Amino acid sequence: MSATSTDLRVERKPKLSENVVTAIRKQLLAGEIPPGQKLPTEGQLTETFGVSRTVIREALAKLAADGLVEPRQGAGVFVTEHISTTFGVLAADMGSKDSIALNVLEVRLAIEIESAGLAAIRRNAAQEAAIQEAFFEFERLLLDSQPTGPADLAFHRAIASATNNPFYVEMLDVLGRRAIPCDVTSPWSTELVQSDEYQRGLQREHLVILNAISAGDANAAREAMRTHLSASQQRYRERLQARQAYYANSLKAASTE
């Protein structure tokens, strides 16, 4: 008897560094380590958590990338002064903007791949025209050096609408402006999306999706949407890894041991 997808699914165990991040984050939010105070040394943290220095450095790099701690050359790692403010709590709860973008893209992958396939099959003429209109509005805004986020969201929302299943639209509406990190007018936007090259890449990917839907090719539409969202996911993952590497190097330089 063949195994089902449920049989093959393996729950991912949290990395050791994630456990350390969670524990320290709780201490910070509880005020157990006040703003401006120096964290215990790497050696002390390895003893406290029973993990290696590599794990501790990885955890501190993540906390630094989230804006909760900051390494100081030759002095150690300190809790940032803003940790007790609303911004600090938000950063602790939601992480960096790049982390948020990755989480949102993961959800969109689960939703929009199938919505693209259904749109290719179920769309009517008016719905296809709405997808095309959003595509050309993105192009117009790009040529005028205007924020393309609203048109980007309209493009994906028009595809969701073309499934003729209102819940696909509802899911995108729940995500709202967070769904489109390239919306530079949104508080969820990141520095990565400012370049014309980045925007051009998005539009090329949009064109492949549009052509597949217009051709009524459900499989091609699904694959085009998967490629589009996966490419965005990879771009943000590389950016986040670069930031964490920067903080890890700063932490190493700040170590007094």
From TrEMBL:
Q: Which GO terms describe its molecular function?
A: DNA binding; DNA-binding transcription factor activity
Q: Which UniProt keywords apply?
A: DNA-binding, Transcription, Transcription regulation
InterPro entries named among the record's database cross-references: GntR_C, TF_FadR/GntR_C, Tscrpt_reg_HTH_GntR, WH-like_DNA-bd_sf, WH_DNA-bd_sf
Please give the start and end residues of each transmembrane region: none
> Which Pfam families does this chain map to?
FCD, GntR
The HTH gntR-type domain is annotated at: 14-82
Q: Among its keywords, does the record have Cell inner membrane?
A: no
Cite the PANTHER family for this sequence.
Answer: GNTR FAMILY REGULATORY PROTEIN, TRANSCRIPTIONAL REGULATOR, GNTR FAMILY
| Identification of the protein by name | GntR domain protein
